[in-house]
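Subject: mismatched residue count in predicted assembly?

I count 528 residues in my input, but I want to confirm that the predicted structure covers every chain. Input:
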Amino acid sequence: MKRLFAQLYLWLLLALLYAPIIIIGIFSFTESKVLGNWTGFSTELYTSLFSGGAHHSLLDAIKNTLTIALIAATASTLLGSVAAIGIHNLHGRKRRIITFLNDIPMLNPDIITGISLFLLFVSLGVSQGYTTVVLAHIAFCTPYVVLSVMPRLQQMNPNIYEAALDLGATPFQALRKIIIPEIRPGMISGFILAFTLSIDDFAVTLFTKGNEGLETLSTYIYADARKGGLTPELRPLSTIIFAVVLLLLIIINVRAKRSAKRNQVM
Amino acid sequence: MKKILDIFGKRSNWAIPYALFMAVFVALPLLLILFYAFTGNEGEFSFANFTKFVTQPEAVNTFIYSIGIALITTILCILLGYPAAYILSNRNLNRSEVTVVLFILPMWINILIRTLATVALFDFMRWPLGVGALIFGMVYNFLPFMIYPIYNTMQKMDHSLIEAAEDLGATPFRVFWKVILPLSMPGVMSGVMMVFMPTISTFAIAELLTMNNVKLFGTTIQENINNGMWNYGAALSLIMLVIIGITSLFSDEEGGDSDSLI
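Triage response: the counts match. Full output below for your records.
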């Protein structure tokens, strides 16, 4: 009985959480400009989303979002991994200062990070656009990479690296053969985290994108919604994004479970 | 070239590029907020931006109103999220891991898309947009961020303590009040941080959910920055930072563990 109530509560809450996205999903299959008007089943919105045409700016925004996330995630994974190795070998005050600095972007609200970077770029007289957005994204993504790589380094046996050097490996070979394989899982989860953070970002992008017409998905939706009418193509787009995220999470969870089982057997 | 290789031969020096990067893109920008907040238009030192804030009833009202909205959102998230986290982590009440994933999933969807979905729901139900939609949208957006940390701490909780309390004759209510609640407090605290902080600093969501009828503090900051009032905007940002600093003092350091979410 208690269990039944508990399950009922969970599913009611889930229904509340998912009602909005389900409504969007349903109405992505009708052509009507206004949401809530069912004008018959059609996949017209899906085709027009990808055919470009009048909504080319939306496709551009998607493209920008993905390329910015890819560049920012790659750069912050490299910068963050190298930094983590450095921090791991630092001690005392230097280490405290750099970990303190590393915490700031994670604790700061987006709007403050955005405004502070905006002030930086205008003070330096840098014209804002694609490059400044990428730099800003690297700035708030890298701390997460550092945080996901650090535990891997701490778990590593330091003697292996020393042994490699004693056996005549150059520091570079030791890095490639010993350290990188050890920290790779941390680098991968750092990359994934950075990639999703970059895609999700809105506030920082808004303040650093300048006014040359650069839009990412978030800023596009914002500008579109402010104009009043939401582009109908946003419905199929949200539905697709939702489906992709759902699929990814399921895959990640199934894989995690499988590897947990494998570890149990061993 | 040889010299450069020598520098990087020492691995503690590998932190240097990142340290330089952070000096320019993290430390300097924050110092600039401080600088702009305490200077006038000509770059002279002044408190004018802060006196302007205190003497403007509209700005102060917006500020208090935003704190109120953030508090309501946070409290609603605790009230709705705590039981959910409790049920999810309790083996007797919930065995399916799918429900856990379903609760975490919305965290991975772009916040503007989620807001858009709330607007769609209100349009569909023919409910008017306004403060009601704002609070619904905020709770809808941030509830997973409350459930996840509480769920995490409850999972790590030492269950032998609960069993001991039961064996010693505590009623279920007392077990909850004396054992489970205190042990889950770090999770609640980091949940409060994860909900209160973004709600107090949010700006775009409020505009979209209330058709521009309700103004939050974040919107005031954004408007000032956009209109070129950088000094005043920086001062308001500093005030927001102070509020957030105070909130984070209340929450436990160990509560704020940022385990990877995947």
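Chain B has two domains: 2-37, 55-259. Marking this ticket as 'not a bug'.
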